[in-house]
Structure formats: C-alpha cells, structure tokens
C-alpha cells in the first residue's frame, strides 16, 4: 500500500450499491452480483482522492475457508500493481483472523486473471463445467481472448 492508498471495509447496506460498477467488472451477471454483494467482507482500496480503485468481496465458508467472490480494479488503474497489493492485504487480513484456505473462481477464457491468481500464489483446484449459463444470468456467446466462456476454473491457496 502506498501512502496515498487506504484499505476500507464497507459494511453490508446501501453504501455497497455505490460499488456495483466495480462489482460488475468482476462478474457481468447482475443476477449473480445481486445474489451475493451484501454478504461477506467488502474490502475497498481507495486512492488519494478517496475514489475506489479496487475491491475484493470475501465470503466466509465452512471449515476455516473464505471465497474471494469478486475481485476488481478500476480499468484506468489496471496493470499498475493495485490488484497485487490489494489481494496481498486481503490475504493477510484473512490469515490474521484464522482463515486457513482461500478459493477463487474465474472463467476458463480469462487468461489474464488466471495468470494473476497464480502469481498471487493460487493453484488450480477444479473446474466446474457449464457454469456460465443463461440460467445463472450470463448471456450466450460471451468470449474473451477468442475463447468461449463456459466453465468456472477454481483456484485455491492455503494460508495456514
């Protein structure tokens, strides 16, 4: 974290609605985002002007686990280490409160995100085939890097 950045925790409630634009960068299904954005701990990294530059929504799971449900950096701040700093801060916070394992999922075609998570210490765990379907609020024909979005790729990291 640089002196100009502040990590903030946003409690559940109407103030989270101000962050829906960032949340929708992480997950383009409004149906999905609205099903979970009021749960868990929402960590927001703010720039010197107070505007959010990145966020992570971490939701506790049974057995000392947490899921990084949404991870996003404002487009104008991507590629500058914001995500790397943010994920390191959140993992430290989760470790400090006793979380032993963290999982995160991303699309099979999200090559940049897959590299990002591996650089942050995550390892491939499993694949959930057919995850990105209209039944879950994802439109047909989504592609990234010329690859159809179909499957959720799950990664995990042991913190203990």
How would you sum up this structure, described in words?
The protein is an alpha+beta fold. The protein has a single domain (6-158), classed as 3-Layer(aba) Sandwich (Aminopeptidase). It is built from four helices and nine strands; from the N terminus they run βααβββαβαββββ. It has helices spanning 20-26, 30-36, 82-96, 111-119, and strands at residues 6-10, 41-46, 52-61, 65-73, 101-107, 123-128, 143-144, 147-148, 152-158. A seven-stranded mixed β-sheet has the order 1-2-3-4-5-9-6, sandwiched between helices. A two-stranded antiparallel sheet has the order 7-8. The radius of gyration is 15 Å and the shape is globular. The model has no long low-confidence stretch (mean pLDDT 93).
What structural keywords apply?
160 residues, alpha+beta, Aminopeptidase, 7-stranded mixed sheet, two-stranded antiparallel ribbon, globular
Briefly summarize what is shown.
The protein has 160 residues and is an alpha+beta fold. The protein has helices spanning 20-26, 30-36, 82-96, 111-119, and strands at 6-10, 41-46, 52-61, 65-73, 101-107, 123-128, 143-144, 147-148, 152-158.
Describe the secondary structure blueprint for this structure.
Elements: E1 6-10, H1 20-26, H2 30-36, E2 41-46, E3 52-61, E4 65-73, H3 82-96, E5 101-107, H4 111-119, E6 123-128, E7 143-144, E8 147-148, E9 152-158
